[in-house]
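Data deposition worksheet. Section B asks for the primary sequence of the deposited chain exactly as it was used as input, without tags or linkers unless they were present during the calculation. Section C holds the resulting structure in token form. Section D is free text for depositor observations; keep each observation to a single sentence. Incomplete worksheets are returned to the depositor.
Section A, Depositor: J.P.
Section B:
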Amino acid sequence: MTNNMKKVFLMVMAVCLAMSAMAVELPKQGFGMQIGWAQPILRLNSKDPSFPKDSLVNTVKLNGFKVGLVYDASYVAGFGSTIGINYTFGANTGSWKSKYAYGYPRSRQMITYHEVEVFVDWQYKFEVAKETYLMLYTGPSIQCGLGLNMRVDEQMDFDAEVVSNRYSTYKTDKKNEALKRLNVTWGVGAGFQYKRYFLRGGYDFGLLNPYKNAQFVDDLGNPIDRNTRGRLDQWSIKIGMYFWYND
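Section C:
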């Protein structure tokens, strides 16, 4: 074997060894998408007497969906993380209620909620069979509210048309300046993965007070600050698939 052939052979062997070492060091990774059911829950811990009992600031459960992109990586044994971005939609339609025991006038509220979130989950996967895992995860998410709107429908009598009053809680006028756009949560959950397919479900606890200290005016026109406190939590169950996975 000539010297040139030896040099080429040694270079090829070195490249192959380097690539093998890099392959060993690379974590198991996957990139895909998820979609599923979501239930944002707007909780009120300290009652603001200026709001009616059936208004938006009481505990309201909004049912909807969540969809997003995820990146998954396992670093040491089964320990790793999942990061991603989601869009969440939720809605709630209340029942007709009358000011009196029965009859008219009556009203109902319809609420819609839109938000995007960036999340980081630290997880541990237990391999229960070949390419089959059970997992536990926990981590924070930062949510940004795009819109939380309430439409109030009023019906004056049986034949009357419904009159709608639409407004957003993110508006800047004093009585509708109710909620902050940013929210931080901490979630816990469990899941299952088989090859490229996974199922995850959990609960996110709101860490920040989503309510602003809304300002109102008394009978004499003097401003009054109302300290309203609560949480914006969320249930979710998602199914997903990795488009690329290097297991």
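Section D:
Residues 48 and 55 are 11 Å apart (CA to CA).
The two ends are 39 Å apart (CA to CA).
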